[in-house]
Specification:
Layout: E1 4-12, H1 14-19, E2 35-38, E3 41-44, H2 56-74, H3 79-90, E4 94-95, E5 99-100, E6 105-110, E7 118-122, E8 130-133, E9 144-151, E10 157-164, E11 170-176, E12 182-190, E13 196-198, E14 201-206, E15 224-229, E16 238-241, E17 250-255, E18 261-267, E19 274-279, E20 287-290, E21 297-303, E22 306-311, E23 319-324, E24 334-337, E25 343-350, E26 353-360, E27 363-370, E28 375-379, E29 386-391, E30 398-405, E31 408-416, E32 422-426, E33 437-445, E34 451-459, E35 470-473, H4 491-494, E36 499-503, H5 513-517, H6 525-540, E37 549-554, H7 556-567, E38 574-578, H8 597-600, H9 607-616, E39 630-636, H10 645-657, E40 664-669, H11 680-697, E41 700-706
Parallel strand pairs: 35-36, 35-37, 37-38, 38-39, 39-40
Antiparallel strand pairs: 1-41, 2-3, 4-6, 5-6, 6-7, 7-8, 9-10, 10-11, 11-12, 13-14, 14-15, 15-16, 17-18, 18-19, 19-20, 21-22, 22-23, 23-24, 25-26, 26-27, 27-28, 29-30, 30-31, 31-32, 33-34, 34-36
Helix pairs in contact: 3-11
Length: 707
């Protein structure tokens, strides 16, 4: 049977190039006389009305913008073939790392083009798998997804969260693992919650029910920790912990594997937590272990009364400590694994050992230690790449992990902690010749001379003549590290001779707290400088040139793309900011935005902070003229993380001030949120539109041929 594939060739097209800079008839976005005053400075906000995203007025604006965008995209001659090829590339099976519950093995599997992964259960590792939960049956369009699961300590029950249309709001349900039967328990308005089992119930976090019509935009306040007993209606759930005097904090509960201890984490941003403990067997009082929000404390596990925590307290690149819960005072803490040059990313207890994940120059390493912190052996991962998940239990000497890289699809392994021997459990199979591609890691100087890591993926036979279409991706915030990970989405770009580059910007966690802090608050400009320098490096080294350079980023990365487009519009041909934080003066006023103040600061903090934020805010720094790159803003109408008003207002201002020149479009996905749980069909359509927009505005046309 003949199948179509891409040639690794792109041809310039006079027709395409000529069509890219024509004026676009943008829908009207009414400008109103709305203003705010910050420290005596008046700031106009003419599109404030677009924040009211449930009104008919905004719905009409969305409809008009989407009509324009899709009309533009439909005229791209190769769009349908591109979507077909992307669909072919997505048509393969994937599996997750198995989780051993003490009785069963649970894992996810996605077959072919299914919209959502299915949760399976097995009685033994090599036993027959049976379907436990199939979220594809929860909606006709695949937009209802599983967003979290938790198995009871006795392996009898599974609590699971369901998210609708990509929203952060979830509903918790419970089923019997032995029979698969659904229990009547149903917990609403949960958000940013775990499910921590103890006895015949579990701890979970939720907010009060939001005001009708403002579920996706109102600020999230007064997070609370509850205990739910199986069989009880939600209104009978017991309040365990609340913060009535601190509405802008979140609270999370975690229990130990033996069900003896409850740990409560209280947070006020995305980093750092206060830590509390409760002895559940003795029904003791809640005891504070660590105060303040300067450091993070993450439970790894316990051996009786001794609990292990991963922390950056006293170690900017993290260390493992042990706390005697009978004497939890700081003076009694013991260091198990000391801070090293590499960042300690995670630790898993398995078979009486500690499996430690490290990050070296933004790439994973893995080692096994005994419980006293003596290193026993290293696990050879074999390439630049990322350990995505590790699963293990104390009574089982076998643990599981997956490993992937830019050109290595996610492979699942089992490994024996005592011997280091590993076995491959699952490797994806599909038709793509990865041997034709290479991954480089380069280090380039930023504006202040700081060396920044840069991964570059391309065909092995790349000719460095400055003409390769290049996609530069970045994030640079919230201590998040961009390690080499596999994504099917990039293959369609690479096989067209494209270059894919990922810059490890400051603000991330690649080198610990100092690297993170160097890209926050009054240091945020470092992130933009790092990204601009990455683009300049790719051009100077002849990987590409401005006419063939596209940039992309999501969420905080959308902010990044918006900011650098304002600062260096001459450097890029195409910009795609996705679900970005675009209004830096008002972000804290919506849903969970207040939690980002630890990275950004707010316009209310001080006059200095206000001026700094206004100085780079994507919405407030768009220049007038027609000299910007082609821009396609991406958002979802159910995004209650970074509310779509950010993208709405930014696109309206962009179209107003850059009405001429290359297109300035916004693509608004319906029944989609911040990105999590997006069905395969929507993902494929979105990718086809992004790549079509990029190639078209570079004046390039993908070529197809029969195999």
């Amino acid at each position: 049977m003949n199948r179509k594939c891409f040639l690794a060739v792109l041809s310039a097209s006079t027709l395409l190039g000529a069509g890219c800079t024509s004026s676009v008839p943008y829908p009207e976005s009414v400008r109103e006389d709305t203003k705010d005053t910050y420290f005596g400075t008046e700031v106009a906000d003419p599109y404030r009305w677009l924040e009211n995203d449930t009104t008919q007025r905004v719905a009409a604006w969305v409809q008009a913008q989407n009509a324009l965008t899709y009309s533009y995209l439909e005229k791209i001659p190769f769009r349908d073939k591109l979507r077909g090829r992307i669909s072919e590339l997505f048509n393969f099976d994937t599996e997750s790392v198995p989780q051993y519950t003490g009785k069963y093995y649970l894992f996810y599997k996605k077959e072919g083009l299914a919209n959502q992964s299915v949760l399976y259960i097995k009685d033994s590792l090599n036993g027959e798998a049976r379907v436990l939960l199939d979220p594809n049956k929860l909606s006709s369009d695949g937009t209802v997804a599983l967003s979290g699961t938790s198995v009871s300590n006795d392996s009898k029950y599974l609590a699971y969260q369901v998210a609708d249309a990509g929203s952060d709001w979830t509903t918790i349900h419970v089923l019997d693992l032995a029979t698969g039967q659904q229990l009547p328990d149903k917990l609403a308005w949960t958000k940013f919650s775990g499910m921590a089992w103890q006895g015949d119930g579990f701890y979970y976090s939720r907010y009060n029910a939001p005001e009708a019509g403002k579920e996706l935009s109102n600020i999230n306040e007064y997070h609370k920790l509850y205990y739910h007993k199986l069989g009880d209606p939600q209104e009978k759930d017991r309040l365990v912990y609340e913060m009535p005097d601190a509405p802008l904090r979140n609270v999370y509960g975690t229990t130990t594997e033996d069900g003896r201890y409850l740990f409560i984490s209280e947070t006020e941003s995305t980093e750092g937590n206060s830590l509390y403990m409760k002895d559940l067997v003795a029904d003791g009082e809640i005891t504070k272990i660590a105060d303040g929000f300067d450091y993070s404390y993450t439970l790894v596990g316990n051996i009786g009364d001794e609990a292990y925590f991963l922390t950056n307290d006293g170690a900017s690149r993290y260390r493992l400590i042990k706390i005697d819960l009978k004497a939890p005072e700081r003076a009694n803490w013991k260091e198990v694994i000391a801070e090293q040059q590499s960042v300690l990313q995670g630790v898993t207890m398995a078979g009486g050992s500690l499996v430690a994940q490290y990050m070296v120059d933004a790439s994973s390493r893995m080692s096994i230690y005994n419980l006293e912190g003596k290193r026993q052996r290293d696990i050879d991962l074999g390439a630049f790449g990322t350990v995505g998940a590790v699963s293990g239990r104390q009574e089982n000497e076998t643990f599981f992990y997956n490993f992937s890289s830019f050109i290595v699809p996610s492979v699942v392994y089992s490994c024996n902690v005592n011997t280091g021997e590993r076995q491959e459990i699952f490797r994806p199979q599909f038709d793509f010749d990865f041997s034709k591609y290479v991954v480089e890691q380069q280090f380039y100087p930023s504006k202040d001379g700081t060396k920044i890591p840069l991964f570059i993926v391309h065909r092995a036979d790349l000719k460095k003549d400055g003409k390769a279409p290049t996609l530069l991706y970045g994030y640079g915030g919230f201590n998040i590290s961009l390690t080499p990970w596999f994504s099917t989405s990039r293959l369609a770009w690479l096989e067209q001779g494209g270059v894919y580059a990922v810059a490890n910007l400051r603000g991330g966690g690649e080198y610990g707290d100092s690297w993170h802090n160097a890209g926050t608050k009054l240091n945020k400009q470092n992130v933009f400088n790092d990204f601009i320098a990455a683009a300049e490096y790719l051009i100077s080294e002849k990987y590409t040139s401005t006419p063939y350079l596209a940039i992309q980023g999501g969420s905080n990365g959308g902010l990044l793309v918006g900011a650098v487009t304002n600062q260096r519009p001459d450097l890029f041909r195409v910009a795609v900011p996705q679900v970005g934080v675009m209004d830096m003066l008002r972000y804290q006023k919506f849903t969970i935005g207040w939690a980002w103040a630890g990275d950004y600061g707010t316009s209310e903090d001080s006059e200095e902070m206000f001026k700094y934020l206004r100085g780079y805010s994507p919405l407030h720094n768009i220049a007038e003229g027609d000299h910007y790159p082609a821009v396609m803003v991406m958002t979802g109408d159910h995004d209650d993380r970074v509310v779509p008003a950010h993208s709405f207002k930014y696109a309206a201002e962009l179209q107003y001030k850059q009405a001429g020149g290359r297109p300035k479009l916004i693509r608004i996905e319906t029944r989609a949120g911040h990105g999590a749980g997006k069905p395969t069909a929507l993902t494929i359509a979105e990718l086809a539109d992004i790549y079509s927009f990029m190639f078209y505005n570079m004046g390039l046309e993908p070529k197809f041929q029969e195999k």
